Amino acid sequence: MNIVGVPYLVKAPLVISFEKISEDREEEFEREFQSLSEVDSDAIGHWLKLQKAKGETGDTDEVVLNLLVELHRKIDKLEKIILKGDKRLLKLDITSRIEEIGFHHFQLEESSFEENAIYYGRVEMVTYPQRELPIFFKAVNTKLAKVNSIHEKDEVDWASYFRARERIMIRERRK
């Protein structure tokens, strides 16, 4: 947060689906949040990380390796759809546009939050690979929220996206 207690935010055109946490759905939200963790939803990515940690990818072209991993993910997804049906995410009550983001905050274009309420949501991230990023957050006011819980890799991607949007904003100011 900056000097006056307002978080530093930059323009970021994202979409979020969310719902206020109620006792009857809290366990469902937690289960989905955990199922969307990197280990559970991205076995090949987890395997690749382990191989890199062991130093077994040193002689490999990083770009080609990443493209092969993405291809493997798509094949895995198709296989799951064919064999078990598509893995459906929970339906969330509200979909809204995010106007600005910070390292731990985001602000909606329109007032949709109940102040101090706790929510579960999924942000449609525009990173590669594109995916929905699950988060738990608390409403600071009717438009501003603070992220309470996010997976480690998702936090890195969120921060990278924030910095990229910040660089765009700085370049636009210089013009």
Largest sheet, strands/sense/barrel: 6 strands, antiparallel, barrel
**Fraction in helix:** 40-55%
How much strand?
25-35%
The radius of gyration over CA amounts to 18 Å
Per the CATH scheme, the topology name of the domain at 10-40 and 88-174 is Thrombin, subunit H
Overall SS class: alpha+beta
Spatial order of the strands forming the largest sheet: 1-2-3-6-5-4
Spans of at least 5 consecutive residues with low confidence:
none
- SSE string, helix = H, strand = E? EHHHHEEEEEH
Mean pLDDT: 86
Number of helices: 5
Shape type: globular
Task: Compute the number of strand runs.
Answer: 6
User: What is the CA-CA span between the terminal residues?
Assistant: 27 Å
* CATH-defined architecture of the domain at 10-40 and 88-174: Beta Barrel
CATH class annotation of the domain at 10-40 and 88-174? Mainly Beta
Descriptors:
175 residues; alpha+beta; 6 strands; six-stranded antiparallel β-barrel; Thrombin, subunit H
Task: Give structural notes.
It is a single chain. With 175 residues, this protein is of the alpha+beta class. The chain has a domain at 10-40 and 88-174: Thrombin, subunit H (Beta Barrel), CATH 2.40.10. Helices cover 41% and strands 27% of the residues. It has helices at 26-35, 38-41, 43-54, 62-84, 152-174, and strands at 10-20, 94-101, 105-108, 118-125, 131-139, 144-150. The chain has a 6-stranded antiparallel β-barrel. The radius of gyration is 18 Å and the shape is globular. The two termini are 27 Å apart. The relative contact order is 0.19. The mean pLDDT is 86.
